[in-house]
Amino acid sequence: MSEVIIELQNANIYQGNVLILKDVNFKVEKGEFVYLVGKTGTGKSSLLKTLYGELSFNEGSANVVGFDLKNIDWKTVPFLRRNLGVVFQDFQLLTDRNVYENLKFVLKATGWKDEKLMEEKINEVLDQVGLKTKAYKMTYEMSGGEQQRVDIARALLNSPKLILADEPTGNLDPETSDEIMQLLFNIAKNYGTAIIMATHDFIVINRYPSRMLKTEFGKLIDSNNKASATSSAL
Predict the structure, then answer these.
(1) Which contiguous run of DSSP H or E holds residue 147?
(2) d(CA 12, CA 25)
(3) How far is Cα 168 from Cα 14, in angstroms, rounded to an integer?
(4) What digits encode the pLDDT tens for the residues 58-77?
(5) How many C-beta atoms surround the C-beta of residue 157 within 10 A?
């Protein structure tokens, strides 16, 4: 039986007091790769921020990596985030330290204390993203593709069930975008990590087709629901 990683039912997504998405229904299972598409301002970022606990959730039901979003507060948000990883378009790496120290900073912030275990984990995730020899390189010395790999390694540190990737190819050239997409699909396939990737890049989508969620006119349309998907063809 498949493990459900995200399930939203009759969920309303708000940004402050403004209703952004109404009556959202979808679920994502272990190892599934899902695109999140839609024009700027249609709710993609609001949905992602709700899923990782930055925006509060009150209407409908939403369960993310075993957490009921209605019942989380500032004390439990860190525990939610330990079970998911976030990949950013602009990397958000610390430029005053090397790759190893960037990753160690995150481990310490999420409660790791044993130096040997931290070293093993850092080496493991760098190996996963093909950067095993780059641990002691300064982040500002790296190419955009390498920095995005570090960002993905950071997202993998706590062996998450879910990765939320916000425009991860947005600042990359086509060849590097291909490398990042292959890496993300391999992570989903080989480690069973569910991935939701917000993107405007339809070249990438056409090269790596997968299920799609689309924000449009205050609704979320799921390509798994064929009837509604045909009305919102790309």
Answers:
(1) helix 144-156
(2) 10
(3) 24
(4) 999 999 999 999 999 888 98
(5) 20
